[in-house]
Specification:
By secondary structure, this protein is mainly alpha-helical. The protein has one domain. 51% of the residues lie in helices and 0% in strands. It is built from four helices and no strands. The N and C termini lie far apart (29 Å).
């Protein structure tokens, strides 16, 4: 954790901006949109499935 504090904040967040879903690991452009709107890196289909079946 202390190693991350020494790095530039732009470098730490660069991995968060890729378009890879955390659930299904597929690349989709909706991942970045959902990251901005909800704070979670989910594609459209995973977001719908998490909304319907929240477990």
């Amino acid at each position: 954790m202390t190693k991350d504090l020494d790095k530039d904040p732009k470098d730490i967040n660069s991995n968060d901006l890729n378009n890879i879903c955390d659930e299904c690991r597929k690349e989709d452009e909706s991942v970045f949109q959902n990251l901005i709107m909800t704070g979670f890196k989910l594609c459209k289909s995973c977001r719908v499935s998490k909304t319907i079946f929240p477990l």
